[in-house]
Design goal:
single chain
Length: 354
């Protein structure tokens, strides 16, 4: 009898996930095309005019003016690559959180990652400015540790209160932890007023980089995070059936949730550590893909990566040109575009509930 039941469960599991749409190649091509175009815009836009020919020559190793080559390889190329990594990771992490918590309004900062990163960066800016550890600036390291600590605290609190029986306990724990971390940060800002300007500049997000160090710093975490979420994209589709139904099919809901949350948090903490808390990317990109293409995470995850990267690179180009020669924080651009979209999502969600 036991053997019969086991075979039944194993055979039902793929059946429950059968029929999920695969990634449509026209949309995949559109995502790649959008990413290439936005990257080209990001490289070409700047206070110093550099033509397309010079960019192509620099990429293929041809003859380029030394000054232009230095600008491209030291500033613009690493900044665009950093934008690709940050935007793609935030969008994929947002999609993963929305799948785990079955909530289209969830974002990568739901469990307190932003609050933890802000507190870590604030402490580093206020009390250890200019400090380095093993040649790495302490601010991104402190932000990374703070983001991880906040999510770990939220997870531990949610587990102790609800035993992870539902996603609601985790969400409420994240709200509590974020409020606690925010209160500490506010106190530090009030007592260390000399660093307020730098703190707010960091919180609003930026892709300012002087080379490839930031890219190399976050690349391993981004790859690991994206790979883990990509592998579990079919199980995220299964979670849409409901926890009881999925558990009855033999899928370990708690383990899947833990792996996806840890992976999304790892990527989010890494990119926030170098770029600050850039809002709304993790909400508007995955949700727009659902509205346009479909709800299956076999589609949402890869397209979120492509369009999220393209969106942030384009937003960064806008941040550099709107008030040129000054530069807006990129979080201002994403919030300006994302807030109306967020309101529209809330209204559509409310209408669907009614």
């Amino acid at each position: 009898m036991t053997a019969t039941v086991t075979v039944s469960v194993v055979s039902e599991r793929p059946a429950a996930l059968a029929g999920m749409p695969r990634l449509p190649w026209p949309w995949a091509a559109a995502g790649l095309g959008a990413l290439v175009i936005c990257c080209a815009v990001g490289v070409l836009v700047g206070p110093v005019h550099i033509g397309v020919g010079a960019v192509v020559q620099a990429l293929i190793g041809g003859q380029v003016d030394p000054g232009q080559a230095n600008i491209l390889w030291s500033l613009r190329f690493p900044r665009v690559v950093l934008g690709v990594l940050v935007g793609g990771t935030l969008a994929v992490s947002g999609a993963a959180y929305q799948g785990v918590f079955r909530n289209p309004l969830a974002d990568p900062y739901l469990l307190g990652a932003a609050a933890g990163a802000n507190l870590g960066a604030t402490l580093a800016i206020a009390f250890a400015p200019g400090t380095s550890i093993l040649g790495v600036n302490i601010i991104p390291l402190a932000a990374f540790v703070g983001a991880g600590a906040a999510v770990a605290g939220a997870y531990a609190l949610g587990r102790s209160v609800t035993g992870l029986r539902s996603a609601t306990g985790l969400i409420l724990a994240g709200v509590a932890i974020a409020a606690f971390f925010n209160s500490i940060q506010s106190y530090v800002q009030q007592t260390q007023t000399a660093s307020i300007r730098q703190v707010y500049s960091w919180i609003l997000g930026r892709l300012v980089t002087a080379g490839w160090d930031d890219v190399l710093l976050i690349l391993p975490y981004v790859i690991l995070s994206a790979a883990a979420i990509f592998v579990h994209r079919r199980l995220l589709d299964a979670l849409t059936l409901g926890e009881d139904e999925v558990t009855s099919l033999g899928i370990p809901v708690r383990r899947v949730r833990l792996i996806v949350v840890v992976a999304a948090t790892l990527g989010t903490a890494a990119v926030v550590a170098v770029a600050g808390t850039i809002a709304f990317v993790g909400i508007i990109v995955p949700h727009a893909i659902r509205l346009l293409i479909g709800r299956s995470y076999r589609v949402v995850i890869p397209l979120s990566m492509l369009f999220g990267a393209a969106f942030l690179v384009l937003a960064d180009a806008g941040a550099r040109t709107v008030v040129a020669p000054a530069e807006l924080p990129i979080g201002v651009i994403t919030a300006f575009l994302g807030a109306p979209f967020f309101i529209a999502v809330m209204r559509s969600t409310r209408a669907a509930a009614l």
